[in-house]
Write a structure and sequence with these properties.
The protein has 300 residues and is mostly helical. It has one domain (2-299). Helices cover 78% and strands 0% of the residues. It has 15 helices and no strands. The protein is globular and about 50 Å long.
Length: 300
Amino acid sequence: MAALGGVLSLLGATLFWAGNYVVGAAAVGSVDPVSLVLLRWLLACVPLVVIAQLVERPRWREVLRGWPWLLALGATGMLGYTLLLYGSLEFTDAFSASLINAFNPALIALAAAVFLRQRLTPTSILGVLLALVGVLVVLSKGDPARLLTGGFGRGGFGQGELLMLAAIVVWTAYTILGRVAPPVPPIASTAAQAVAAVVLLAPVSLALGGPTLPATPDAVWSVAYIAVCPSVLSYLLWNRALRVIPPARAGVFLNLITVFTAILTVLLGQAITLPQVIGGCIVLGGVVIANAKAFARARA
């Protein structure tokens, strides 16, 4: 029964993260990315701090001793990644962004080999290359000539896709930093990073004239969803699942983000193209191959 609860928690977490792409794409139509990121973490940081205190009861003084790490993690994962993600959604669709994001585990495996000296097997290298091919299929929309001419992407020269590529590079840096940073309880760490993101971004937002507040009911609900579901509930569900499901097995569920994004896209009546389907399958296949050991542990 506990395992079933863990699986349901993982499904809920990945569904909320998938919703971040779809709802984020709608939100950037009325709220600029800087304001959206600031509002997201400003609204989420207080619940995260409260929940961390109730669930983990961390020693906050010890947590804050690692403030340089928390600032670096907040600047990359909470600030840089989300800014680039929402920036990309101004120019490309949610499903394409999620497909490019699906390449992230393969990129992390490559970065871990370079920076953490983790062994990269020939199978892993094959998986990384295959996943990269899938990303190129998505970027070119099935026409390799567009990669050479620079004319791919809905916004001209593929600003959205390129921003999403930058986002996963930043998230890779965040992941590598997280692996070498001093250990902190996960919810407390997320809360502290959210606060760091607000501290770093607030002056920038004020210098740009202050945050743009949502002006319509739809925009308000979009910001509320982003602040609550992928920012708070997903992390809570994920950490709840890790109590009963091994991390390697839980990691497999991250691939469902792309699947759920596709389902939400179809339910909203948006089109999914053949190159997206083909590229997505290639990316997911490459990720499975690149992380073959983790998948083997998950089946054990």
